[in-house]
What does this fold into?
Amino acid sequence: MKKSLLKSISIALTLIAYLLSCTMSLYAQNINSMKTPKKILFVVTSHDKKGATGQPTGFFLSEVTHPWKVLHDAGYEIDFVSPQGGKAPVDGFNLKDEINKEFWDNTEYHAKIEHMMKPSEVNPAAYSAIFYAGGHGTMWDFADNADLAVIAAKIYENQGVIGAVCHGPSGLINIKLSNGNYLIEGKRINAFTNEEENAVGLSNVVPYSLEDKLKERGAKFEKSAQWQVHVAVDQRVVTGQNPQSAHKVGEAILSLLNERNLSTNINNDMNASIHWPERFMPGKTDNYVSNEIIVSGITAEEVWKYIVNTSAWPKYYSNVSDIHFYNSPGPELFLNAHFKFTTFTFLVEAEVTEFVPPADGKPARIAWHGWAEGDAETALDVHHAWLFENLPGNRVRILTQETQIGKPAQDMAKAKPNPMLNAHQEWIEGLARAAQGQI
It folds into this structure.
């Protein structure tokens, strides 16, 4: 009887230990799942024939493997999706390319391309970027896939990066943002050119000209000579011209992700200060100014109305004019708003990169990346940020800072006093007076 009791206790303790180990394992998995994932979604074609020719096609292997190499080595996990899911057809199969062979021999990733997700199985929130690989098959099944377009738009509007190479930009043609505008409208975009399509003899086989269709959607199409490396980067959209450009596309995507991650770390570590992309970090640019005032009797909410309404700007700031919006009627700013204005005689194009209205006692923030096109003497690249913080005693803190890159920025930095410093002081004080009802 005693032995039987001891045996029962032993079995019970073993069972309890097993259940505890399972619980701890599940707990660990849940903790890991709560961490911000470093994941990128690769999109490849399911189409395997070049039109009526019957010639095989699919995703072009090196256009997957070379970006994969850059991003995988940087610590990103890559997932794969295709319009139909399952096993995707492969073109350009060349294992003499060492990176192709490395990818093909990787059992984890070989299994992924054999069992791709369908669009319905993708959670866009899990990804920092989405990349459309090329191959002629994309010309038949990328552009009109509404599910993939929605996934890409969600990733982009969550401050993610969109990349594509060669024929992969066919997947960008019908992506629309939440404001109803096409993603590529007004952006510098690159893809397989008409000349390259003619050179491979498929201009009359593909269902449309990729270059022409991108232009129809409002893209600023740019290109180099046939088979030359060419990568365009514009507002978190990275595109490459041909297979030769695939590696550089991966590097450009990684660079943008590194900037975003640094900015996120700063957001987490610093309170009530400006959030800087790495490229525009003060001390690393050609010109930097900071203006700050503290005013009583108004709130961040009242000031906010006059910074986001651009029609009010010329009423309280004399150094701005000719404000025009590309992707909305205006005049209100919003996240990803693309607009232009004239200041310091420069015609500046800009995109709002940060938009946090005042709420829950936290500072309000707005920032835009601006640029003035030109040559080495006249081109300008800037990041201009604002912060509005309610303080005890019915006071508000207004902070604006700007960094600039380019020869004009160098010239302003040398001037005494710095003209941008004086101009921004006028802007910040005028903004406060507008919120006080004095303008």
About this structure: DSSP finds 13 helices and 17 strands in the chain. Confidence is low (pLDDT under 50) at residues 15-36, 265-271.
